[in-house]
Amino acid sequence: LGKGKHIENIVKELGEKGRAPQRLVFTDHRDGGAADLQDIPVSVLQTPEQYGLKLSRLADITALHEGLEDTGDTSHMKSLAIEDLLGRPQAHLDIKSMRDLIAGKRVVVTGAGGTIGGELSRQIAKFEPEAMALLDFSEYNLYALELDMNDLELDLPWRAMLCNVRVAEQVRKVFDDFRPDIVFHAAALKHVPLVEANPSEGVLTNIAGTRIVAEACLEFGVHTMVQISTDKAVNPCNVMGATKRLGEALAQAYDLESTGTRFVTVRFGNVLGSSGSVVPLFRKQLDKGGPLTVTHPDICRFFMTISEAVSLVLQASAHAMRHPEEKGRILVLDMGEQIKIVDVARQMIRLAGLKPDQDIKIEFVGLRPGEKMFEELFDSGEVRTATDSSQILAAVSQPMDSAVLKRSISNLEDTARKGDDSAVIRLLQAVVPGYVADPALETLVDPTKYRKKA
To answer: Between helices 306-322 and 95-102, what is the axis angle to 10°?
Structure first.
């Protein structure tokens, strides 16, 4: 198609034809492969993700040949590349808009020890913020993030801080000391079956935590709060989705009311390789020789890579800053078509050099409480609109009455603090449009199951 210096135009032209490449593969092993790099633009080598590319090197053919013997040694096998499971090119990135959003700003990330929060912290650090405060309630997750951030050898002040977003005094103390310009609120309970079994905890983290962070943003004059949401908030059928839907509604209400702070909500789907997702589970099952367990042969989800999701969150946030007239809209990341979970399982088996249903079996184990067969990005009451980015859509909806919403949330929080899970479920059904609890949920949270018999 051309020489190294033509890469940018080649990628652009293929993308316009719907054939955007996913990888740039270097094949030359002479002189350490230096010949492969000749004339390739520095931007492609340093930030290939802005072109939707990953860089790879073809293994030495002699090494491949030696690995063909059936010795039982699998060390030659191809390591799993998460993006190979997408079945589509990764999104192209607008590096300039992300840098303009972050450079010179004081940034707080809540839930920084989680999958999304950690990747946000690492990507934000590249764009020269003035300072960063990374908050999490998990000591181990924060410790692990701190090790990662130390490896980056950052030339900026940053601090990893133990902080529970459910405790207003802790959040206010951090904001009072740090005085952030931008807050990325990624702290959440997200694992559907666990939140389904612990509704009160879901309310206290996903709803009360969001309210507490939002109120601190208003009190301390934060310029922008970015609320990380999920496609499970659309027509929710589980507690996690219902609590995230109320988090969206609350951020939307604050965005429409506030004359200072912007409240930006970004909604996206499953993240490949995130903690609690199918990929780590399938990896573990593969290591044991199978079987890989899938709930239903037809269940499907929207998927993104961690890097792709976080980069588009930053782009969507930058878009919202450029368009203050779009207050109250929910930004939705375009993730292409949904993928069947069973297809992800089969692809992981193939990428391990094995044959699905022969070397490794797949078992269907049935849907779990609160689990949907498929997800949606927009509900029936939302109007889908375009933005100035082809990868970011917007949902325009009728906001909930602010006074009613805040009273309902106050009642929910009070009930959750008492630990009355059954009452929490009833209140969620009363306030979240379209939410109907799974019939199995009442049994799941029945406290009499655990009481000592007289």
So the answer is: 70
Half-sphere exposure of 394 (CA within 13 A, CB side): 19
Annotate 302-337 with DSSP letters as a single string.
-EEEHHHHHHHHHHHHHHHHH-GGGTTPEEEE---S
Neighbours of 312 (CB within 10 A): 26
Tokens 């203050």 identify what position?
324
- Residue pair 166/342 in contact (Cβ under 8 Å)? The answer is no
Helix or strand run (H / E) with residue 392: strand 392-397
| Six-digit token string for 347 | 């692809």
In 3D, which of 216, 232, 117, 218 has the Cα closest to residue 172? 216
Instruction: State the Cα–Cα distance between residues 84 and 288, nearest whole angstrom.
Output: 22
Condensed to tens digits (0 to 9), the pLDDT of residues 181-197 reads 999 999 999 999 999 99
**Measuring CA to CA, which residue among 186, 310, 188, 294 is closest to residue 240?**
188
Residue type, 220: F
DSSP state of 210: H
The answer to whether residues 255 and 262 touch, using CB atoms and an 8 Å cutoff, is: yes
- Mean pLDDT of all residues belonging to the chain: 86
Q: In this predicted model, what pLDDT tens digit does every residue of 405-440 receive, in sequence order? A: 999 999 999 999 999 999 999 999 999 988 988 887
Question: 222: closest CA among 245, 247, 267, 255?
Answer: 255
| Residue 251 structure tokens | 């951020």
Cα-based torsion angle of the residue sequence 114, 220, 126, 102 in order, rounded to the nearest 10 degrees: 120
Q: Dihedral sign, CA of 62, 67, 69, 71?
A: positive
Task: List, by residue number, the catalytic residues.
Answer: 232
Give the 3-state secondary structure percentages of the chain, helix then strand then coil, rounded to 5: 45, 15, 35
DSSP string, 146-192: HHHHHHTT-SS-EEEEE--TT-HHHHHHHHHHH--SEEEE------H
| Predicted pLDDT of residue 65 | 42
Angle (nearest 5°) at CA 116 between 185 and 304: 125
DSSP string, 280-310: HHHHHHHHTT-PEEES-TT-EE-EEEHHHHH
